[in-house]
Structure formats: C-alpha cells, structure tokens
Amino acid sequence: MDHRVTHVAAAVESAVESLVSVLDAARVAQAPTVPPAQLRVLTFISDNRQTNMSRLAEALDVVPSSASRLCDRLEAAGLLRRVPDPRDRREVRLMLTPAARRLLDQIRERRRVALAEVLDRMPEQARDELQRSLAAFAEASEPGEEDTADLRTA
Question: What is the pLDDT, as a whole number, of residue 21?
C-alpha cells in the first residue's frame, strides 16, 4: 500500500472521530436522553418499516432476548409499539410512535445544526473540496462492476 494512502487513511480516521464527537454532542443535548443502543434500535426501525424482532436482533447482532429487552424499554418510554403482523399473526411488527419520530427528527436537526456550525468555520474553498472529496469517497466505497464480477467468478 502506498505510504501516502496510509497517511490519508489516518487523516480520514481522525476526521471521523471528530465527526462522531460532533454528532454525539448533538445527541446528548436532547432531553430526555436516549441511550445509544436504544437510539440505534429506533433508527433501524425507522429505516426498515417492516421490522420484526428476529430481523432487529440479526441487524443488531444480538440474541433475540436482548433485542426484546431493548424494545421493552422503548415501549415503556412510549417510543415503540408492538403490533401483530397482518400477514402472519404469529409475528410481531415493531412500529415507532409519533413521539419516537419527533425524537429522531429533533436529533437529526440538532446534528445538522452542529455540523453546519463546524462547516461554517471552514473556508468556503475547503468546504467545496470536502464536498467533492466526500462524493468521491462515497463513489469509491460502492462495489463496482469489477468487484461484482470477481464475486461471480469466485
């Protein structure tokens, strides 16, 4: 691996740590505070509307009983509902309450504001370069045709 690429990787790692710090500070500013594991559950369910307990446990890489305890806490806090799946009454679907949706929206907005404050302190040219670089990084991180061709021949 090229030595310059290693330095860039270290710089990216450092930037990610700074980014996580800014995002965490915005999350912690919420009231009431939702622990990170519960927030992860809410975010997953928000992004995957047809979620059941086994799918959630798999996504979190935990045993179903641990996922169930997390859901118990969220349900007690009024952020989650368990409803029978209309297609299979043996299954339970996990649904966010309006309060959970408002909470996620508030957290996203606080994060955007916190990020905007940091970006506002950067020179305009650096912001433009960052935007182009992030777009290039996102594109490079997507599997390309040559990557999928390698999987087909493996």
Answer: 87
